[in-house]
Amino acid sequence: MGSIGFSLNSPPNHALLHCSALNPLYNSNKSRPISGLSIKMVLATPTSLGFKNLMETITVNVQRAENRPLNVPLIAPFTIATSRLEKVENVAIRIELNNGCVGWGEAPILPFVTAEDQPTAMVKASEACEFLRRSPEMTLGSVLGEIGGILPGHEFASVRAGVEMALIDAVANSIGVPLWRLFGGASNTITTDITIPIVTPAEAAALALEYCKQGFGALKLKVGKNLNADIEVLKAIRLVHPDCMFILDANEGYKPKEAVEVLEKLHGMGVTPVLFEQPVHRDDWEGLGYVSHIARDKYGVSVAADESCRSIADVKKIVEGNLVDVLNIKLAKVGVVGALEIIEVAKASGLKLMIGGMVETKLAMGFAGQLAAGFGCFKFIDLDTPLLLSEDPVFGGYEVNGAVYKFKNARGHGGFLHWDDLA
């Protein structure tokens, strides 16, 4: 079997595909076939079977693998119940296959949510890149498994996600398939909410009014530091954007009784959130179930597990205890492979799905968005943080029209970095 990226045996009327090392996004005019692989195989449905087939069928031969800091300023500080972020300090990953096709990944760093800080992430990403550079040709599934061993569990999930993104992007680039098609092709668009961090009522109202003008119908409000202040912020937002849908995200900030009190006060105001995300501490399983059952039965509000959903073991505990209605999947918490496993369990268990992120550029958000669009099974989309950056170093990628992201037919991710600018 040939190594991934040289081309593929195309059905009639399809041009052979090849990537040039000089251009990470497009082909040169030279090509060599991979025996036994066709576009039809790559786009096989159902999605999970198609991607599993890809992992078992295609072999990967990495020529270069590097990582560099990805530092980007924010428009304003981003404050949640557990941390405050002044700027993005993530890690970018670039993987080039032996045919010149390039894949891009991003390991997002958010203190108190991701386990890694940037120096740790840089060291671990370098270890993974060194492994890829010296590894023999192997199947995509095998190399993803090896990366999972080098970067195990939640402790290194963010870096693992970034490396997995870059590998999968390189493979998709090689076979000429956009990521949203690789993950099933259900849609090429998503509609995201937008987040209002913990700010004053006046600041929250100003943001809500601006987002309303931009066409955002769903606002995700960070709460959990001060119950009374949270209520005042909600009142201020309602005055300027009375028709918006609310998602409350406490980021573990409330005690169980406080979380219920918030719902009671909102009910008295005539406000029903569409979702209440992570109301209590990640390890307070009893409290999570308590809030979830009251929210569902008394107020008709779904509760989502975010920080409490950091592994497949967490998901099984949630399913067995009937603890929440919604799982928030973030690639930085569980990696790409872990996310695919959780999607399967959630679908089989009847749980609804949300996809979110940390504070990321269009690299990580674009990958997550294309995964969500391709699967088409996510009820809640929270992929807004590139809109909170004062600049975004990613070139290309998806088109943005207010709350709607449209993914093109460009192969792979469709976006890239000017690598030397990060040096």
From TrEMBL:
<dbReference type="Pfam" id="PF02746">
    <property type="entry name" value="MR_MLE_N"/>
</dbReference>
<feature type="domain" description="Mandelate racemase/muconate lactonizing enzyme C-terminal">
    <location>
        <begin position="201"/>
        <end position="295"/>
    </location>
</feature>
<dbReference type="InterPro" id="IPR013342">
    <property type="entry name" value="Mandelate_racemase_C"/>
</dbReference>
<feature type="binding site">
    <location>
        <position position="249"/>
    </location>
    <ligand>
        <name>Mg(2+)</name>
    </ligand>
</feature>
<feature type="binding site">
    <location>
        <position position="277"/>
    </location>
    <ligand>
        <name>Mg(2+)</name>
    </ligand>
</feature>
<dbReference type="GO" id="GO:0046872">
    <property type="term" value="F:metal ion binding"/>
</dbReference>
<protein>
    <recommendedName>
        <fullName>Dipeptide epimerase</fullName>
        <ecNumber>5.1.1.-</ecNumber>
    </recommendedName>
</protein>
<feature type="active site" description="Proton acceptor; specific for (S)-substrate epimerization">
    <location>
        <position position="330"/>
    </location>
</feature>
<feature type="active site" description="Proton acceptor; specific for (R)-substrate epimerization">
    <location>
        <position position="222"/>
    </location>
</feature>
<dbReference type="InterPro" id="IPR013341">
    <property type="entry name" value="Mandelate_racemase_N_dom"/>
</dbReference>
<feature type="binding site">
    <location>
        <position position="306"/>
    </location>
    <ligand>
        <name>Mg(2+)</name>
    </ligand>
</feature>
<dbReference type="InterPro" id="IPR029017">
    <property type="entry name" value="Enolase-like_N"/>
</dbReference>
<dbReference type="InterPro" id="IPR034603">
    <property type="entry name" value="Dipeptide_epimerase"/>
</dbReference>
<dbReference type="InterPro" id="IPR036849">
    <property type="entry name" value="Enolase-like_C_sf"/>
</dbReference>
<dbReference type="Pfam" id="PF13378">
    <property type="entry name" value="MR_MLE_C"/>
</dbReference>
<keyword id="KW-0460">Magnesium</keyword>
<comment type="similarity">
    <text>Belongs to the mandelate racemase/muconate lactonizing enzyme family.</text>
</comment>
<keyword id="KW-0413">Isomerase</keyword>
<dbReference type="InterPro" id="IPR029065">
    <property type="entry name" value="Enolase_C-like"/>
</dbReference>
<keyword id="KW-0479">Metal-binding</keyword>
<dbReference type="GO" id="GO:0016855">
    <property type="term" value="F:racemase and epimerase activity, acting on amino acids and derivatives"/>
</dbReference>
